[in-house]
Design a protein that fits this description.
Elements (H helix, E strand, L loop, with lengths): L16 E5 L2 H11 L3 E4 L5 E4 L5 E6 L9 E7 L2 H10 L27 E5 L5 E6 L2
Parallel strand pairs: 1-4, 5-7
Antiparallel strand pairs: 2-3, 3-4, 6-7
């Protein structure tokens, strides 16, 4: 959660996102070791991911988990080709969606109509992306 607290008109002082996984230990390993994010233990068996910009995302175990069919978390990167190459070396497999022209690496170039982006999944099947950001 952020350090800056200013009360919103209905009393909101902070916010964060969260998503479920089937196996919290596999998630811990993937987000810490594969993606290199700061991962800490939260309450009731959950994990807290600290993103490079400082935001926190809660990851929690859920019985009978089924992954969403949409992108759960996007990671902005300055060198998409290098990031995709590094993640590929770490065992990440990139998705190829119908309707997008993908390079063999998995990158779909936006050509001015959207970001250059590459999608992949975590061990639970949650869809994530890395996308180019200036």
């Amino acid at each position: 959660m952020t350090q800056h607290r200013r009360e919103h008109s209905v009393g909101i002082v902070d916010g964060f996102s969260g998503f479920a996984v089937a196996d919290i230990d596999a998630a811990r390993t993937f987000y810490a070791d594969t993606l290199g994010l700061e991962v800490s233990a939260g309450q009731m068996g959950q994990l807290n991911l600290t993103l490079p910009g400082g935001a926190t995302v809660m990851v929690y175990p859920k019985p009978n988990f089924e992954p969403a069919t949409y992108t759960m978390l996007n990671f902005a990167v300055t060198d998409l080709d290098a990031t995709v190459g590094e993640l590929t070396e770490r065992g990440v497999e990139f998705l190829h969606y119908e309707g997008f022209e993908h390079e063999p690496s998995g990158i779909a170039r936006g050509h001015g109509h959207g970001p250059d982006i590459a999608w992949f999944t975590d061990p639970a099947g949650n869809i994530l992306s890395v996308l180019h950001s200036d």
